[in-house]
Structures are given as structure tokens and as C-alpha cells.
Amino acid sequence: MPHVALIDYGSGNLRSAEKALARAADEASGAQQIVVTSDPAVVARAERIVLPGVGAFGDCMNGLSSIGEMIAALEDAVRGRGVPFLGICVGMQLLADVGREFGDHKGLGWIGGEVVKMEPADSSLKIPHMGWNELKIVHPHPLLDGIGERPHAYFVHSYEFHARDAAGVTATTDYGGAVTAMVARGNIAGTQFHPEKSQAVGLKLLANFLRWNP
């Protein structure tokens, strides 16, 4: 059976993500099996890959790097063979060249840019940015198909992705200025918001991901 690898590297909301992916698979009448794994060999054989992430950029990158051959397996599958990939929250941020949380930390470098501390123009807005915010689709993308005219998604973060190429930003949200909500390039996509906590909008995005053939 084709499987979706949900990577366990000690830095993700795995249970919620697993349940949401499984529900999306059921509703899409798909045959995919959702596999939570820290085994690079399982990731290498996956039909699709999801990288969650909660915590500091450097800690998450170190956790991923500490699993022998995991980054090599990801590079081969995602960049080498074009396996569809979804990063969630810090899992999206790790796509950047560098994260500047508690010092500078090298990212995967799959989508050019940097991750920096949020500085809303309105000083009354609290950091972390936490709660429901409206998504503004700036570049149509298959993962965003059918999510509604004014979709809202759930965010929890203190740092934001500044993409080097604006064409890679597919959706933003407003929090004292435009904040990157989703990035995409080829077979790679990432959401700053949490689809697994975003109810119908999140389930639709995950179902789209499970059908996505970039």
C-alpha cells in the first residue's frame, strides 16, 4: 500500500497531524497509509512526505540532523525524485536557507530565504502570533483549491519566513503587515499555519496534498 511518511524527529505535533492526515485520506477515499517514522529507509520509500515542527528552528534542525541519513533520504526523495513534500510550521521554516532564532542556523535551503523574528507594525499585537487568521491567496496552488473565499487557519509562531523570491509565496496573512502563510516550489510546499488544527480548511488542504501530483 502506498504510504505517507510523517517524520518523527522529536519536534512535531505528531498525534494531531497523524489523525488529520488519516481523516483526510478517508474522506478522499484514498488508499494511503499514514506512517509515523524516524527511519530514513521508510522515508525513502514514501509516496509523500510530511515534516511537522514545533519549537525553535535550531533545535528542530539539530533533531532532524541527528537521525543518521535522514537528510540524505529527504534530499534524494524530494529533490532527487520529486516526491511531494509538505512542511508544517517549523517544518516549513526549515525549508529556508537560514533561521535566525537564538543565533543563525543553517536550514535545508530548498526555498531561498530566511526565518526572522516577527515585528508587527502595530506594537499592540502580541508575539507569539496565536490563533485564527484569514489567508490571502497571492498565487493559486493546487493545495489551496476549494478551501473557500475567505479561509481562516490556525497559527502559533513567533518567527516568520522571508522568501527571497516573492513568487514562492502562495499565501499570506495579516498580522501588523503581511506574513508568509504558505510557500511552494515545484513538488515542495510548506504552511506556517497548522492544517491539523485548522478544521475544514486544514482537512481540505491535506486532502489536496494527498492527491497532488506536481
Characterization of this structure:
The chain is of the alpha/beta class. The chain contains six helices and 14 strands. The strands form three sheets. An eight-stranded mixed β-sheet has the order 2-1-3-4-14-13-12-9. A four-stranded mixed β-sheet has the order 6-5-7-11, with helices on one face. A two-stranded antiparallel ribbon has the order 8-10. Strand 13 and strand 14 form a beta hairpin. The model has no long low-confidence stretch (mean pLDDT 95).
Q: Can I get a quick summary?
A:
By secondary structure, the protein is of the alpha/beta class. The chain is built from 6 helices and 14 strands.
Looking at this protein, list some descriptive labels.
6 helices; about 210 residues; four-stranded mixed β-sheet; eight-stranded mixed β-sheet; globular; about 25% helix; Rossmann fold; alpha/beta
Biggest sheet layout: 8 strands, mixed
For the record, give the distance between the C-alpha atoms at the N and C termini, rounded to a whole number.
Answer: 21 Å
Q: CATH topology, which one? A: Rossmann fold
Order of helix and strand elements from N to C terminus: EHEHEHHEHEEEEEEEEEEH
Radius of gyration: 16 Å
Residue-averaged pLDDT, rounded?
Answer: 95
Overall CATH class? Alpha Beta
Outline the low-pLDDT stretches: none
